[in-house]
Design a protein that fits this description.
Elements: H1 28-40, E1 47-48, H2 52-59, H3 63-75, E2 79-82, E3 85-87, E4 93-95, E5 99-102, H4 105-138
Antiparallel strand pairs: 1-5, 2-5, 3-4
Helix pairs in contact: 1-2, 1-3, 2-3
Length: 141
């Protein structure tokens, strides 16, 4: 019978996706890449090492598209990437895959809130200047 395979333990069949992720305004592609990184991460070190190619195959994206969404995740403060290197059997040093470190979601929420506050302050200042210009046109000195 084909269905004779042992099921993995329940803790290995899912990964947590923080609720706050949906309040950050991520693009659907960035959300898919972030979900895959959470799926791959070591829950003790919060790190993983998938290549752009393996991420792309898993979420049906090209390597360049994955690269774009990883940059978006870094900009949002959700992940940090570091280049790694390996030593081949013949002793040559080669580039390895990126090391992704998943950051606490609260960091990203704080960054997002600071950006929103900054945008609000800029909009308020623009409105104040526009109102001042409008009143100076109505009452020339």
């Amino acid at each position: 019978m084909l269905w004779n395979c042992a099921k993995p333990p329940a803790a290995k069949r899912f990964f947590p996706l923080p609720n706050e992720i949906f309040s950050l305004g991520l693009s659907p592609g960035a959300l898919a890449v972030y979900s895959y990184l959470l799926y791959c991460e070591d829950r003790k070190t919060y790190q993983c090492y998938p290549s752009y190619t393996s991420i792309g195959k898993s979420v049906s994206m090209s390597v360049n598209t994955v690269r774009k969404y990883v940059a978006e995740l870094e900009e949002q403060g959700l992940v940090v990437t570091e280049a790694t290197s390996i030593i081949t059997k013949d002793g040559r040093k080669r580039n390895g895959s990126l090391r992704y470190t998943i950051l606490p979601i609260q960091n990203a929420v704080d960054i997002h809130n600071q950006r929103q506050l900054q945008r609000l302050e800029e909009t308020t200042e623009r409105m104040r200047v526009a109102k001042k210009l409008e009143s100076s046109k109505e009452h020339p000195a």
